[in-house]
């Protein structure tokens, strides 16, 4: 029996998505930039997907930039904006992000800071992994140009208050404009540079509204393979007033924002996946949460010396993140996979080959030694209570085996499950 509990890493492709993509591999294989009929068929498919996506995300079709995934979209949002602002004469602007962002946001920002192209503020989070709107308000400076805060955390499932944070940004922008407009014409100078808000929403569309207008954001990144679509296809939705500069050059695709032959099957699949996720969002959220809550209940009742790291009152319904104290997470993962065919994770798949404690867990105030036993269960729409029953035939024994091998369990003599938060 094979059971998959790692949907934050990737999801199996929905059969309806595969069906929608199928004609564009062989039958309608044209390059969407070609002007003959083969290219025209591909271009129509791209245009239809773009229009479908734009309606869901509450932007214009021309405000969708197709990418290879959210990593590229995040890099385009950050580096593209910094380079675009340079053309306006804005050098070394200030950017604000959070301590629990994906590396696809933090690494570009850290690189730009190291190169002295930006100054950077990294906001802390509370024990639930949530950014404070007041902390954001306090961090904003006259030279702030971008706030980038993820929608749903990929490791523990915390949901950020994006609308509340975007309200803070709007208030700061309104204050900038008001102060400028009150100056005399001779004193005003150029109109002040406003702050843009970007959100990496990769983990969100299966369960949460991603409309840019509803969220109050200017840019939003998505990946198809996180919502039962194909790998290698994603997007950046960007409001028309954001001055981006392309990262890739050598063609005139995507209105000069992203050079490269369009991935027609991937774009079609992305459009279908987002449409299905939106259509079934409420139903799937209820179903997945019920199975996730059953998983938590079983672990709480049947296992000891466990810390629940997912804030159940403010979370994605798919996530259940635990620290199994006194055992190594990697060992648990491998044993479940090899002995029972059950796939789980120790954290973000993009960082799973790196050593060291999770920066997300550390930012939440979790002790270093407690991060070593971290296991992330992320459920999907096909998981059932029977999957949980099968897991619990193996998990307690696996954890016990590795605890028994540990040299000293003195710090972990307490019984029962602890909610970290």
UniProtKB/TrEMBL annotation:
Coiled-coil portions: none
Cofactor needs: pyridoxal 5'-phosphate
EC number(s) from the headed UniProt entry: 2.8.1.7
SUPFAM superfamilies from the UniProt entry: PLP-dependent transferases
Domain of life: Bacteria
PROSITE patterns cross-referenced by the UniProt entry: AA_TRANSFER_CLASS_5
Signal peptide, first to last residue: none
GO molecular function, one term: metal ion binding
Record bears the keyword NADP: no
Keyword Iron-sulfur: yes
Pfam families: Aminotran_5
UniProt keyword annotations, A-Z: Iron, Iron-sulfur, Metal-binding, Pyridoxal phosphate, Transferase
Aminotransferase class V domain mapped to chain residues: 3-173, 195-391
Catalytic activity line of the entry: (sulfur carrier)-H + L-cysteine = (sulfur carrier)-SH + L-alanine
Family (UniProt): Belongs to the class-V pyridoxal-phosphate-dependent aminotransferase family. NifS/IscS subfamily.
Name by which UniProt lists this protein: cysteine desulfurase
């Amino acid at each position: 029996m094979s059971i998959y509990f790692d949907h934050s890493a990737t999801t199996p492709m929905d059969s309806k998505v595969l069906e929608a993509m199928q004609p564009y591999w062989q039958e309608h294989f044209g390059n969407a930039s070609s002007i003959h009929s083969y290219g025209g068929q591909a271009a129509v498919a791209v245009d239809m997907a773009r229009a479908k996506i734009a309606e869901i995300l509450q932007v214009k079709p021309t405000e969708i930039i197709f990418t290879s995934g959210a990593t590229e979209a995040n890099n385009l949002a950050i580096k593209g904006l910094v380079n675009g602002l340079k053309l306006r004469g804005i050098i070394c602007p200030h950017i604000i992000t959070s301590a629990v962002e994906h590396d696809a946001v933090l690494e570009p920002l850290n690189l730009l800071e190291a190169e002295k192209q930006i100054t950077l503020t990294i906001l802390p989070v509370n024990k639930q992994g949530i950014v404070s709107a007041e902390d954001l308000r306090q961090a904003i400076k006259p030279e702030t140009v971008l706030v980038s805060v993820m929608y749903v955390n990929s490791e523990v499932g915390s949901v950020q208050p994006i609308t509340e944070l975007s309200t803070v940004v709007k208030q700061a922008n309104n204050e900038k404009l008001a102060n400028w407009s009150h100056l005399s014409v001779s004193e005003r100078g150029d109109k002040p540079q406003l702050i843009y808000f970007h959100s990496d929403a990769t983990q969100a569309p299966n369960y949460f509204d991603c409309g840019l207008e509803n969220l109050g954001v200017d840019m939003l990144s998505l990946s198809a393979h996180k919502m039962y679509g194909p790998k290698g296809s994603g997007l950046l939705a960007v409001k028309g007033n954001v001055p981006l500069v392309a990262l890739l050059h050598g063609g005139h695709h995507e209105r000069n924002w992203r050079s490269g032959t369009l991935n027609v099957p991937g774009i079609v699949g992305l459009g279908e996946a987002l449409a299905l996720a939106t259509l079934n969002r409420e139903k799937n959220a209820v179903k997945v949460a019920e199975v996730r809550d059953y998983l938590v209940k079983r672990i709480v009742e049947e296992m000891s010396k466990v810390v629940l790291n997912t804030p159940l009152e403010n979370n994605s319904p798919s996530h259940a993140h635990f620290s199994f104290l006194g055992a190594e997470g990697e060992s648990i993962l491998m044993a479940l996979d090899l002995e029972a065919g059950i796939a789980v994770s120790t954290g973000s798949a993009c960082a799973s080959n790196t050593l060291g404690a999770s920066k997300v867990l550390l930012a939440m105030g979790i002790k270093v030694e407690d991060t070593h036993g971290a296991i992330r269960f992320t459920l999907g729409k096909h998981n059932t209570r029977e999957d949980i029953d099968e897991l619990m035939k193996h998990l307690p024994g696996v954890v016990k085996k590795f605890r028994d091998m540990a040299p000293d369990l003195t710090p972990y003599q307490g019984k029962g499950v602890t909610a970290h938060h």
